[in-house]
Amino acid sequence: MTDPVEAELPVLEAPADGVPAVVDTPEALAAAAAALAGGTGPVAIDTERAHGFRYSPRAYLIQLRRAGAGTVLLDPIPFATNDAPADLSALAQVLSDAEWILHAATQDLPCLVEVGMVPGRLFDTELAARLTGMPRVALGTLIEEAFGLRLRKEHSAADWSRRPLPDDWLNYAALDVELLIDLRDWLADKLDDQGKTEWAAQEFAHLIAQAQVVPPPRPDPWRRTSGLHAVHSARALAVVRELWTTRDQLASSMDRAPGKILPDRAISGLAARLNSPEVKRLGPQDLSAISEFSWRAPSRYRARWLAALDRAAALTRDQLPPKQLSSDGPPPPRTWETRNPEAAQRWNAVRPAVIGRAEQLELPVENLVSPDALRRVLWKPPMPLTAESLDAALEAELVRPWQRELLIPLMLTQLC
């Protein structure tokens, strides 16, 4: 049901200067780069991906807007070569001195970095809104709050790999950057009024740095399969692993979202049949008992699913996956009382104080310090415990200077 107040707001229907033609040729890209280079001030940037449709997280459309240059809708796909991503570093170079404005930059930066677009300076409107204490930080919500206008949301989950892109989708995409520069200024004023401008600057610099770090491969990514809580034995976990790996290989080779090939619930549902003591080995009859395996897409690969089941059944006991993956971090704090009583005392003293300080500062507590960083430092604090040693320990966990400045006195008061 539409919120009555939201329904009263005027809808931003179209960009003020119209929807530009899509940039998809070298000549058009050169002209767009020249126009953006001739613009002034910051540049608003957004991307559209095809999450839920494609395996690749690449950008299928990049929107840019700058004063004096207008809006650019760039299709990076024609500039890709031999399955390699497009190289748009030349475009990034002409914008190297400009501040880049993104909303929820952690979503857009990876696919921008993939095509060689790395900002020198950044302003993240979502993160800025969080730092000011705003409870709702979606782009549409902020546009409503700042300007009394409503953005349409109907194409946010569309398949942006579709070609040609429909005109109404391009209109939607252009509107995503239409007011982003104005929103940046509105939020910058709020940050300044609250004395949080430097905090935001450090956070934005951290985002840029982290976006350029290649993360290590996630151990056992198959353990994120939904419904895994219903899978009880190591043999059943092996079934999940083999089916997930088979699906992932198919998805990667076809650049299709894994869930379009076989939903998670089919994998976990089939593996959970081994929970029954009567079921010793899964075979064709079990595959037929899970309705999703009879759907058109999964049924094409029936031989592959059966081969995966055979591989899981052939594993020796020492080849089965452990029921739980060991972690390099501390256990959940709820277990500290029995496993490390001194750490539990530290947690019970410091955590409420951190929450209270975040409330005073009108910050989400996770923006004052990440829960993982706080757990790691309190589980095994530096010794001797001093302001200097605590500062070094927090810095090692990527806690920013402004956060450390606030946290260290508070933590020392509770721990000493």
From TrEMBL:
Entries under SMART domains matching the protein: 35EXOc
Gene3D superfamilies (alphabetical): HRDC domain, Ribonuclease H-like superfamily/Ribonuclease H
Signal peptide span: none
Region (Disordered), start-end ranges: 317-340
GO MF annotation terms: 3'-5' exonuclease activity; nucleic acid binding; nucleotide binding
InterPro entries per the UniProt record, alphabetical: 3'-5'_exonuclease_dom, Exo_C, HRDC-like_sf, HRDC_dom, HRDC_dom_sf, RNase_D-like, RNaseH-like_sf, RNaseH_sf
UniProt domain 3'-5' exonuclease: residue ranges: 20-192
PANTHER family per record: RIBONUCLEASE D
Listed name of the protein: Ribonuclease D
Organism annotation: Micropruina glycogenica
Lineage: Bacteria, Bacillati, Actinomycetota, Actinomycetes, Propionibacteriales
